[in-house]
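Backbones bend. Our protein:
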Amino acid sequence: MLNRIVTNLYEEGLRPLSLKFGQLNVLVVAARLGTAPPEVCDFLLLDPSPLSCNVEQMSANGWLEVVPDSDR
């Protein structure tokens, strides 16, 4: 229950930026690592599908740049 309350507080604060809490986590990892490799799913305990969706949205907003790699 506490997790939901904290997440809702973050979601409310990030709403003016059109940013979701899960997306913020991905951006933080990308900023720390300099990249957001597919292994970020394991680190953040995410399924690849939601990560792909979030990356597409963040890329469209100019927050991430998608760089082709050998493993796609």
